[in-house]
Amino acid sequence: MTMTLFLQVFTGQGIRLQGEIAMDELPDDLARQAQAILQDDRMLADAASAQPPPQMVDVSTYELTLYYDASHTHYKHYTFVDAETNIDVLDLLDDIMHEIIRHKKGLV
C-alpha cells in the first residue's frame, strides 16, 4: 500500500483548494522529493510550529494529512502557514497541489 496525501490550502483571500493523491501517482522526481521531505519528522514538526507575524492578515494555511494505510486509520496531520514555514516544505506542498489539480482536470 502506498502512502496517500490529503492536502487542503486555505488562501488569505478565502479560497480553499483540496484533494487527495497517492504517492505512486506523483511524477517520479516529485515523489522522490516528497519521500525525502515527508520522512523528515523533525523538519515537518519545525515547519508546522512556525507562526506568521501578527500583522500578516493574508497568510495561506496548508493542512496536510499523510495516510499510511487504505483504511486511513494510521496517519499524521500537519498544519503549515506560508509566512514562516520552511520554503522546501511550501514548495513541495504547492507542487503536490498542482499535481492534484492536474489529476482532477484529467490532464494526467
List the helices and strands and how they pair.
Blueprint: E1 4-10, E2 16-22, H1 28-38, H2 41-49, E3 61-67, E4 75-81, H3 87-104
Antiparallel strand pairs: 1-2, 1-3, 3-4
pLDDT < 50 runs, ≥5 residues? none
User: What's the tally of helices?
Assistant: 3
Mean pLDDT level? 88
**Strand line-up in the sheet with most strands:** 2-1-3-4
Structural class: alpha+beta
| Helix coverage percent | 25-40%
Question: Biggest sheet, open or closed, and with what strands and sense?
Answer: 4 strands, antiparallel
Q: What number of domains? A: 1
Please provide the count of β strands: 4
Radius of gyration: 14 Å
Order of helices and strands: EEHHEEH
Q: Tell the overall outline.
A: globular
Strand content: 25-35%
> How far apart are the termini?
21 Å
